[in-house]
């Protein structure tokens, strides 16, 4: 359902897309036991092909926080220093744990009652790297990777074949961590609808 709090606004307040291209009818609420926090670069907020807002609107435990330098952000610093929470940053480098490694690590420490949370950076690779370098607390977080996955982001230029949109990254991260791909399938349905909508627009077809 389209949501606009301002009768003069042309944008939906839920999916952040233009009302005539609103995708809220395709958003399905997904109960994700592991919270996902999205740190979004300011340049992505109004990007018409962005997927972070769609991901956050779909997940029941998800938040978007916009910024580039979070080093003095009380919310983030509070989250990262909370002893009841273990945060992991999705960042594919040679230091990243696989989800299998993380699962084994958790199983080997049964006395650790801290709950898990994942952090995902939303921006181009260059912008995301700058965000990481601007925030020492983020850079110190343990990192996890989800392996090489061919992205299906057909409507936006990819820096390399394995680059994923934010909603794809969220889908693969949560579905593989929980082993419940069917639970998160609505994320891919929504993502495919976004791709189709833009392709139809490019070919001059009304959506």
UniProtKB/TrEMBL annotation:
<keyword id="KW-0949">S-adenosyl-L-methionine</keyword>
<dbReference type="GO" id="GO:0016432">
    <property type="term" value="F:tRNA-uridine aminocarboxypropyltransferase activity"/>
</dbReference>
<keyword id="KW-0808">Transferase</keyword>
<protein>
    <recommendedName>
        <fullName>tRNA-uridine aminocarboxypropyltransferase</fullName>
        <ecNumber>2.5.1.25</ecNumber>
    </recommendedName>
</protein>
<dbReference type="Pfam" id="PF03942">
    <property type="entry name" value="DTW"/>
</dbReference>
<keyword id="KW-0819">tRNA processing</keyword>
<comment type="similarity">
    <text>Belongs to the TDD superfamily. DTWD2 family.</text>
</comment>
<dbReference type="GO" id="GO:0008033">
    <property type="term" value="P:tRNA processing"/>
</dbReference>
<feature type="domain" description="DTW">
    <location>
        <begin position="8"/>
        <end position="203"/>
    </location>
</feature>
<dbReference type="InterPro" id="IPR005636">
    <property type="entry name" value="DTW"/>
</dbReference>
<dbReference type="InterPro" id="IPR039262">
    <property type="entry name" value="DTWD2/TAPT"/>
</dbReference>
């Amino acid at each position: 359902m389209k949501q606009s709090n301002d009768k003069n606004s042309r944008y939906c307040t839920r999916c952040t897309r233009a009302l005539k291209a609103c995708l809220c009818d395709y958003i399905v609420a997904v109960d994700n036991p592991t919270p996902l926090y999205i740190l979004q670069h300011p340049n992505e907020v109004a990007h018409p092909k962005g997927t972070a807002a769609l991901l956050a609107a779909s997940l029941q435990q998800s938040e978007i926080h916009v910024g580039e330098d979070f080093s003095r952000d009380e919310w983030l610093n509070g989250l990262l220093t909370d002893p009841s929470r273990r945060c992991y940053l999705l960042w594919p480098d040679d230091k990243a744990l696989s989800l299998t490694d993380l699962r084994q690590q958790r199983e080997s420490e049964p006395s650790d009652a801290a709950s898990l949370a994942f952090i995902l950076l939303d921006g181009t690779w260059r912008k995301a790297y700058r965000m990481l370098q601007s925030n020492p607390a983020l850079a110190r977080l343990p990192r996890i990777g989800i392996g090489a996955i061919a992205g299906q982001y057909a409507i936006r230029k990819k820096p390399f074949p394995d680059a994923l949109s934010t909603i794809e990254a969220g889908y693969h991260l949560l579905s593989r961590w929980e082993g419940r791909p069917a639970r998160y399938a609505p994320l891919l349905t929504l993502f495919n609808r976004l791709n189709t909508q833009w392709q139809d627009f490019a070919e001059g077809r009304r959506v």
